[in-house]
Amino acid sequence: MRIWYDACTGKQVRYAIAIAKKFKAEGHEVIFTTREHPDTIPLAKGLGEDPLVVGKYAPTTLASRLEESAERIIQFVKMFRDKKPDVAIAHQSVELCRVAFGLGVPIITTADTPYAYAVNRLTLPFAHTVVVSEALPKSFTADNGAHNVTVFGGVDEVAWIKGFNPKKTTNTKKPLIVVRQIENRAVYAEKKQDNVQTLAQRLAELGNVHVVQRYNNENEEAYKEKLGFEDTAELVSHADLVVSYGGTITREAALQGVPSIGISDMAKTYVNTYLTQKGFPLFVTTEDQVIEVAKQYLGKRFDVADKLAALENPVDVIAGIAKNITRQK
């Protein structure tokens, strides 16, 4: 098989590498593409991968978003005009979905953010199969035009946390509290207040606070490769507490037994609730209550090995679907 995976964010780079590893081990060809983005290229390089870089992240205006998306689509069409992939896989890459659909290439996409209304409408209807966690309600895929839906018993982050072996370190100042900035340039979070610095100052009374920023600064250069690369999955494995406005880093931490706090309303998601109900140390609260929750769980490492082993790996599910698609051609 010839597999194409397009990764638009750091999370998607991790997904791409996990899926590529699976297919390459079985002798298949994987074409791994990404775009210029604060997290994509440095993370890929840090993990020993060298993806094809096509286009860039340009969220300054709605027009800039549309222009860059159109440029990526054109470049992908040129790449695959004469030799198409057998299957295209993504975590809701708008450009992959548009190009693969236009060229008649079956698409497998994962999805876990019901509140990302624009991306859902621009990706899910194009997919041959949408792969989602059992945490999500059936209405999510039905309302967004998905045709074939496969449900798995886990969350996306299991794909790269299962089998993950973080490096041992003794250089971290303790207790270490990792705080992740809100993704305020995403369409779904543009009107959200970024209070990360204020929160970091409050948490500094409890320990050594390490803020993971989304961008370099507030000018146009902010959306290019960050000046300092940080492997967040590695970082949180050594943390005593993780606090975030988003979801990925909290789930990466909780799946490793590190207590993590998600700040609602951005963190009050189906997949976060699902992990909490499964017994993983992921707690959702408000900004006002963060300090109290932090005091309660700071430094308490949880044994979640058996719980993690019981979750289904979406990579195996995706691989099975891809093989069935190519057999039916």
Number of strands: 12
Largest sheet: 7 strands, parallel
Broad CATH class of the largest domain? Alpha Beta
The proportion of residues in beta strands is 15-25%
What is the CATH homology-level superfamily of the largest domain?
A: Glycogen Phosphorylase B
Helical percent range? 25-40%
The run of helices and strands is: EHEHEHEHEHEHEHEHEHEHEHEHHH
Helix vs. strand class: alpha/beta
Q: Quick check: average pLDDT? A: 89
User: Regions with pLDDT < 50 over 5+ consecutive residues?
Assistant: 218-225
CATH fold name of the largest domain, please?
Rossmann fold
Number of separate structural domains: 2
Widest sheet: strand order?
Answer: 3-2-1-4-5-6-7
Please report the distance between the alpha carbons of the first and last residues: 12 Å
Based on Cα principal axes, name the global outline: globular
Q: Mind telling me the C-alpha Rg?
A: 19 Å
How many helices?
A: 14
Tell me which CATH architecture of the largest domain applies here.
3-Layer(aba) Sandwich
**Quaternary form:** single chain
Question: How would you summarize what this structure contains?
Answer:
This protein is of the alpha/beta class and 329 residues long. It has helices at 10-25, 40-46, 62-80, 94-103, 117-123, 138-143, 158-161, 196-203, 232-237, 248-254, 270-277, 290-297, 305-310, 314-328, and strands spanning 2-7, 29-36, 52-56, 87-90, 107-110, 129-133, 149-152, 176-180, 208-212, 241-244, 260-263, 282-285. The longest helix has 19 residues, at 62-80.
